[in-house]
Structures are given as C-alpha cells and as structure tokens.
Design a protein that fits this description.
This protein is of the alpha/beta class. It is 56% helix and 10% strand. The protein has one domain: 5'-nuclease (Rossmann fold, 3-Layer(aba) Sandwich).
C-alpha cells in the first residue's frame, strides 16, 4: 500500500505529541507538510509541554511552508482559524490530503474534494502496520489531555481496532 502525503493541522499534532506518538506520522504518511501558521499555533507558547516536541519533530520530519494567500485560503479564512485555512490551501496546492480533526475544517476539505485523515485513522493505521499494539491507551491519554473525541467516534475506532469490550 502506498503511504499518502498529507498536510497537518494543529489538532492532530497536539494530540499525538501529548501522548509522545508524533513518530507515528512518519510511519503512516510518506511525507508530512506543515504550514508555518500551524507550527506557530502549536509552538508559540514554549511552556506547553508539547511545544518543544512538535518543533523538533517538524524540523526533522516535515516540510514547513510559508503562509499562503490564494483563493482557497481567502475562501475559508472567514470561518476557519488561520492554521486550518493555511492547511487546506496548502493541501489543495500540493494535491494531497489533509490531517485535520476539527469539524468545520473537515467539512471544508470535503467540499474541496481533499482526502481527509484524522488522528484516530492514524492510530488505526499504525496498529495495522504494527507500530502500536493497542489504540485504547493512546485514545484515553489524548482524552485525558483534553483532546475532544466524541464517544461514538472513540467506540467505533476501538471496534475497528478489535478492542471494543
């Protein structure tokens, strides 16, 4: 199976950094692109425990791109945050998928016809390829760190992973 190329939004980076699993992105995707706005959002406050990890990971495992002001960006910037708007614009320009969990951003990506990936999909794929043995502990840690995942979506991911109980 060919590993996809993806542009990352802030949420999945924060969720994975919070449980020390950023390297799963390199295992699941063949290339990771990060808009500078997303890097700024995730690392602006060095007191956040994940900021240094995301910064180091982006420097070594991702290609960071400057801000964009194209038609895609302009069309979504009115209702999405800066990082999401930049991620959608960059994914469109590169012709690749977007790693995003925020509902409005995912809806915009669907309207643009962009392939969508979420943090739970990353966990499921990492389990399929043997990089992790269970998703439940990571899912619990993400939720305890404040990452919002609906109960129905969490249950479906556990079911798909064969961990529903």
């Amino acid at each position: 199976m060919t590993r996809p190329v993806v542009v990352a939004d802030s949420g999945p980076l924060i969720a994975l950094a919070g449980c020390d699993q950023l390297e799963l992105l390199s295992a699941v995707f063949s290339a990771l692109h990060v808009p500078q706005a997303v890097l700024d959002e995730t690392t602006a406050d060095p007191a956040r425990r994940w900021a240094a990890n995301i910064s180091a990971f982006a420097r070594t495992q991702a290609q960071v791109h400057p801000s964009r002001a194209d038609e895609i960006y302009i069309s979504v910037a009115a209702y999405l945050d800066e990082g999401e708007a930049q991620a959608l614009s960059l994914a469109h320009a590169l012709g690749c998928g977007v790693l995003m969990d925020e509902r409005r951003g995912r809806e915009a990506a669907r309207r643009q016809g962009l392939p969508l990936f979420g943090v739970l999909g990353v966990l499921l794929q990492a389990r399929r390829i043997g990089r992790i043995t269970r998703i439940a502990p990571l899912l619990e840690q993400m939720q305890s760190n404040g990452y919002r995942i609906s109960q129905a979506l969490a249950e479906e991911a556990l079911r798909l992973a064969g961990e529903a109980g």
